[in-house]
Amino acid sequence: MRILICDDDPAAVAELQSAVRAFFAERDETPDLVCYPGGDALLAAPDLRADLAFLDVEMPGTDGITVGARLKQANPSVKIFIVTAYPDYLDEAMRFQVFRYLSKPLDRERLFRNLREAVRLYVTESRPFPIRTAEGVVVRRAEEIVCVETVRRKVLITTTAETLISAEPIEHWRRTLDLPCFYSPHRAFIINLAFVNSITRDSILLKNGNQEKTAFLARRKYAECKAVYLRWAESVG
Amino acid sequence: MRTLFLFLGTVLCAVILWVYDWALLPSRRPLRQRLILFAAVCAAWFVLRLPGSLLLSVPAFVAGNYLLLRLGFVCDRHGAAFHAGFLTFAYAAAAVLTLLGVEYFQREYPLYSRDAVTMVWVPELARLSILIAVLLISGWALARRTGETKGDSLPLLCAAPLLSLLCAGLLALFALRGTLTGPVRLLLATAAIFLVAFNLLFLLLYSHLRQGAASNTELALSLQKERADLEYYRTLQQEAERQRILVHDMRKHLNTVRALAAERGAYEIEDYVNSILPDLQTVRAVRFCDDPILNVILQRAASACRERGIGFSCDVRGGVTAFLDPASVTTLYGNLLDNALEAAETSVEKQVWLRAIRDTTAQSVVVTAVNSCDRPPERLAGGSYRSRKGGGHGLGLRGIARVVRRFHGVSETYYDPQERRFHHVIQFPVQAERTESTR
Question: pTM of whole model > 0.90?
Answer without folding.
Answer: no
